[in-house]
Amino acid sequence: MHHRIKLFACIFRNKSSNRGTIYPKCIQKCRMTDLQWQSALYDLRRQIVAGDLPGGTKLRASHLAVQMDISRTPISEALVKLEGEGLLVRDKSGYTVRTFDLQEVYDAIELRGLLEGAAVRKAAERGVSEVELQKLNELLQALDDVLTRDQLADYDALNHDFHLQLAQASNSDILVAEVKRSYRFPFAAPSAFPTHAGDAKRFRASLAIGQHHHQQILLAITRREGTRAAALMSEHALLAHENVLVATQKQEAIPQLALVRTPV
Ligand SMILES: [Zn+2]
After folding, report:
1. 186-199: pLDDT as tens digits
2. pLDDT for 216-252, tens place per residue?
3. Other C-beta atoms within 10 Å of 117: how many?
């Protein structure tokens, strides 16, 4: 993180001078603080959603500032933002990582399916270009390849790219932003479920069904079948319901479960 901050400061130079005169210190400091709070936000959000900071963990700006070696101000800004995103709760004693019950996890997954569904419906109705179709087909083929070769380590990033490319095919910045926002809840992102954990055999079967959905969604977009594309996308997201339910029932070793309050 420090490296990135230093780099950022270096590129903020006066273009009119070949020697690279640095902007006045106040501007430079503002830019660095912006970057710091965004880095802190990204870092904390990643740790929460990955289950590294389990539900119920108290977060104090002073401790985090020491741990992350930055000042308290950007940390405090990041904590306010995370509270707004619904990942933290605040009371008199400070911020605590939220715990979600199963129904809330299901709702977040369902919402992701609805938003992605709206995006693919729009893509199908407006029609997508040959270039966009080619990109989507290439990603679909790459997903097929990793599943065939059982290279599951590569699956998550490709699946994430495929979902994002589908959302972008809507050509709607608003929809894309809302789809991305829906990925921020535990288990709601398309690749939220770690491929290396849990019951591998059952999970592989779930991936095969998911890939069949991917193929059908792309086919529906190509045929301009908006309603079908949206219905398939909603159904596709619901695969995650089953994965979460089984993982909680079997108490699988998945770090994100640290955020989920399971029924006793
Ligand atoms: Zn998928």
Report:
1. 788 887 766 555 56
2. 999 999 999 999 999 999 999 998 888 888 878 777 7
3. 23
Distance 198 CA to ligand 1 centre (A): 18
Q: Are 112 and 237 in contact (CB under 8 A)?
A: yes
105 CA distance to ligand 1 middle (Å): 17
Torsion of Cα atoms, 221 then 225 then 230 then 235, to 10°:
-90
Q: How far is C-alpha 236 from the chain's CA centre?
A: 17
Q: Which domains does the chain have, with CATH numbers?
A: 2-98 (1.10.10.10), 101-261 (1.20.120.530)
Q: Which two tokens stand for residue 157?
A: 């990033």
Segment 153-182, tens digit of pLDDT: 788 889 999 999 999 999 999 999 999 999
Q: Hey, which bits of the chain come out as E strands?
A: 58-59, 88-91, 94-97, 100-101, 260-261
Task: Give 205: exposed, middle or buried? Use CB within 10 Å, 0-12, 13-18, 19+.
Answer: exposed
Burial code (b: 16+ CB inside 10 Å, e: under 16) for 181-197 equals ebbbbbbbbbbbbbbee
Ligand 1 centre to CA of 88 (Å) is 27
User: Residue 100: beta bridge partners?
Assistant: 260
Ligand 1 center–CA 211 separation, angstroms? 7
- In the block, tokens 């108490």 appear at 251
